[in-house]
Amino acid sequence: MYEHLKIEERGMVAIMTISAPKSLNALNSAILNEIGEYLDEFDTQRFRCLVITGDGEKSFVAGADISEMAGLGPEHGKTFGRRGAEVFRQIETLPCPVIAAVNGFALGGGCELAMACDIRICSENAKFGQPEVGLGIIPGFSGTVRLSRLVGMGMAKQLIYTGKPIKADEALRIGLVNAVVPQAELMDKAMELAGQICANAPLAVAAAKLCINTEYDMDAEEAIAFENQAFGMCFSTEDQKNGMQAFLTKGKCEFQGK
Ligand code: CO8
Is 50 helix (H, G, I), strand (E, B) or coil? Predict the structure, then answer.
C-alpha cells in the first residue's frame, strides 16, 4: 500500500517503519507525503500509541533527501520545508502519544522527526545532529523551534552552529532522549513504554498531551485555566467513573476510551 512505509499493528499500538534503505531512510517528498497520508487516516479510536522507527540497524532517518534538495531554488526550498514541517506538526498534534524508536542515525530531518514525537528512546549506536549549516541551509523541519525547547538554548545553538553529531550517551545526558538501550532491545523497550501508556485512560492521556503541548506557548494564568478546563472535561468520561470505582473497590479498570 505504501512504497516507503511498513505498517504493523500490535494490539492498540501501531508501528510505522520508514524504509528507504538506499539512502539510509532519508526523507524525500514522496516519503513525507506517505507519512502525511498515513497520519490523515490514523485510527485514533483503535490505536492508543504510535511508534515510529527506521528500517535496518544503521539509520533511523539520515535527514531530508539531499539529492532532492540540491537543485531547489528559494520557493521550492520553502515549499519542501513547509511540507516537512506540516507533517511533523501532524505527529506532534496526533491525539495519542508517539514514541520515536531511534535505531541509528537521526540527522537533520531525522533528528527533527524524532523531536516531533512525544518520547524518544534510542539504541546505543544512535547518533543525533543537525548538520544543515554544513550544507548551506538551516534545519527546515522545525528543528530551530523544537531543539531549544528540548535541550535549552545553549546546547541547541552549539549543535546547530557546529553541525557536529552527538552519540546516544550525550543525547541522554542533555535530555534529547529518555533512554538508551542495546539495539536488540529497542523495540521491546518501545513496546513496553507503549503498553504502559495503552493501559491508561486514552481520553485522559490525549487531554494530557494536548495540555502539555498547548500550555507551553501560554502565560501561566492562561495555561492554568487551560488545564483546569481539560481536568473538568475528564469528569464527563466513563473512564473517570470506572477508573476511580476500580481503585476504591481494589479492582482493575479496562479503560474503554469513553
Ligand atoms: N540524503 C540523500 N542521500 C543520503 C542521505 C541524505 N540525507 N544520507 C545518506 N544518503 C545516502 C548516501 O548518499 C549513500 O548513497 P550511495 O550509496 O548512493 O552513495 C547512502 O545513503 C549510504 O550513505 P553513506 O555511504 O554516506 O554511509 P556512511 O555510513 O558512510 O555515512 C552518514 C552515513 C554519516 C549518515 C552519511 O550518509 C551522511 O552524512 N548523510 C547525510 C546526513 C545529513 O547531512 N543529513 C541532513 C540533511 S539536511 C536536512 O535534513 C535538512 C532538513 C530540513 C530540510 C528543509 C527543506 C528545505
Answer: strand
Beta sheet of 166-167, edge-to-edge order = 59-61, 105-107, 127-129, 166-167
Residue-wise pLDDT tens digits, 154-189? 999 999 999 999 999 999 999 999 999 999 999 999
Determine the Cα–Cα distance for residues 73 and 66; give it in Å rounded to an integer.
13
Residue nearest to atom 3 of ligand 1 (CA): 23
* Catalytic site residue from 34, 132, 227, 254: 132
Place 1 in a pLDDT band, splitting at 50, 70 and 90.
Answer: confident
CATH homologous superfamily for 5-198? Answer: 2-enoyl-CoA Hydratase; Chain A, domain 1 (3.90.226.10)
Question: Could you tell me the pTM of the whole model?
Answer: 0.98
Domain ranges of the chain: 5-198, 202-248
Residue 98 CA to residue 176 CA, distance in Å, equals 15
Contact 23 CB / ligand 1 (< 6 Å): yes
Mean of the per-residue pLDDT values for the chain?
97
